[in-house]
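RECORD TYPE: protein structure
NAME: Cation transporter
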Amino acid sequence: MSDRTEESTTGAPKSGESTLTVLLAGAANLAIAVLKAIAGVITGSAAMLSEAAHSVADTFTEVLLLTALRRSDRPADRVHPFGYGKERYFWALLAAVSIFASGAMFSFYEGFRTVFGEPEEQSSPLVGYVVLAIAFCLESTSWLQAMRQVRRESREQRRSIVEYLRLTDDPAPKTVLFEDSAALVGLLLAFAGIGLHQLTGSSVWDGLASVAIGALLALVAYLLARTNRHLLIGRSADPVLVRRIRDRIVAVDQVDALVDLQTMLMGTDQVLVCARVDFDDSLTAGELEHLCVKLAATLREELPDIDEVFLEPVPRTDPELRAAVLGRYGR
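PREDICTED:
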C-alpha cells in the first residue's frame, strides 16, 4: 500500500491516468460503434448489430466514468462534510447498469429474434470482417492502456493483477479493462457468427453469437455492479493500510491497547479511520487531548490515504464494547 499511497499524494497522477484511460476508451468505442452500425445494416448480421449496441453502451459508460472522475474531486462542504468521493462509485454503478440495459438486453433481443424468427439472408460478409478487424485494432489500443495502468498500479502495490482488481478503490480502470476485454471477446464471437452463417447458410449461428455477446455483457455488468455496491455500502480500507494503522497506534508509548479499529473507503484514496483506544490512565485530560491530536496528525502524515481520523478513549474492560467488537470480528 505504501508505494501507491505516496504517489497518490503528489498530485493527481492516478486520477490523471484514469482520465486518459477513460478518454481513450470513449473515443475508440464511439468510432467503433459507428462502423459496426453501418456494417450491421449492410450485412444484416444480428451479431454485428449486437456489437454496435455493445459499443454504444461502452461509449455511454465512458461518459458516466468521466462524470464520476470530475464530480468526485469536489472538496468537502457543509452539505457533504466528508467530500464527494463516493460519487465515483455511484456513477460507476450506473455505468454497469448501462452495460446491461443497453448492451446485453439489445443483444439478447437480436439473438432470440434471429434464432426463432424467419431465416435471414447474409449479404456482404466481407464488410463485416473488415469492420471487425478494424474494431479489434482500436479496442486493443484502449485495452492496452487500461492494462498498462492496472499492471503498473498492481506492481506498485506488490500484488497480482487479480488481487489488485479485487481490492482497488478506483473503479475507472477496472471498468474500462473489463468492458474492453468483453469487447475483444465479443468481436471474436461476432466473427464466428458471421463466418458460420456464411459457411452453413444458416442465420441461427449469427443469432447464437448475438445471445453469447448478451450473456458476456450481462456477466461484466454483474461483476462491476457487485464491486461498486460494496464500495457504496462502505467497504473497509485496504488490509495492508489497516495493519499499518494498527501498528502505528499500538507503537505509541501511552497506548495500553487498541480496542477497536474501523475503516471505510470514502472515495479513491480517501479513508475514514475510527479507533477506540485504551490510553494510559495516568494521562491528564489535557495530555490526552494533545496526544489524540498528535496521533491523528501523524497517521495522516505517514499514511496520506487517510482523510479523517476519529480517536475515542475507552476502557478495554467495558463489557458492552467488548461484546460489540467480538460480534463484528469474532474471537
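COMMENT: The beta strands are 255-267, 270-279, 306-313.
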